[in-house]
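Exercise 3.2. Students should predict the tertiary structure of the chain below and write it as structure tokens, then compare their answer with the key that follows.

Predict this chain's 3D structure.
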Amino acid sequence: MTLIGCFVTPHPAIIVPEVGGDRLAEVEDTVQAMRSVQAKTAALAPETIVLLSPHAPILAGQMSISMALSYRGSLASFGAADVTVKADGDRDLAEAIMSRAADHGVRSAITASRGDVIGLDHGSVVPLVYLMGSLKQPCRLVLLAFSQMDREDHVLFGRAVGEAVLETPRRVLYVASGDLSHRLMPGAPVGYDPRGARFDRAVVDAFGAADWDALLRIDPGLTAAAGECGYRSLAVLAGVMTAAKAAGLTTKNTVLSYEGPFGVGYLVGEVEVSAPTSEQGGSV
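Answer key:
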């Protein structure tokens, strides 16, 4: 099996030292968790990272899959032009994901063609700065985005992603980028709503317990009130886990950190993936 693990990551640029500077102490829990993610990723040695970003090109009625030749990104818009990431695209895996999505009746669209060099959004760059920061070999990338379709469609899309990943010969790491509620306190980016904290607690508790059903049962009204940008990323991850379970893999969820110092919830989480004992006896 080639799904070697999954991470849930936030994407505030302030957690990158060149951007955060002296304010890193205000997001210390998140920074330390992301440094742990960096070390864990280096140990896993992925050959491809499949990353879903809420800020990649989004289509209302279709999931987005990039077939780009390569990707480039920086944090220049945050005053840190020297912070860059680059990766070649894994077009074979991207095509396999699109094929599997069609098998499940999930509409998807190509957002970048085979000859394109794509600029990455900050929802991709911030996690990738950490994910790729200690890799000893080049790593390919598949960039995905969610849609405005129902959460059930996102779960099915995740299942398609998981099935495609499990069929590829490469070692693949799956990453769900997303911030939780943007309404945790007065002065938060999109205003305050006490339901934001309720939403975040429900998400963190469900993820920590690996209770994907509970995650998917969160009331849509609560999700809307929270002003989040990560719930659909997690719904897709739930589908990836469905595929992993169907393949006989075992998983273990860990909340590495959660905090909301600026009124936005930042969750860093890990899903360890292991093959059945009779097949491999350890982590994939």
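Discussion points: Confidence is low (pLDDT under 50) at residues 280-284. Residues 28-44 form the longest helix (17 residues).
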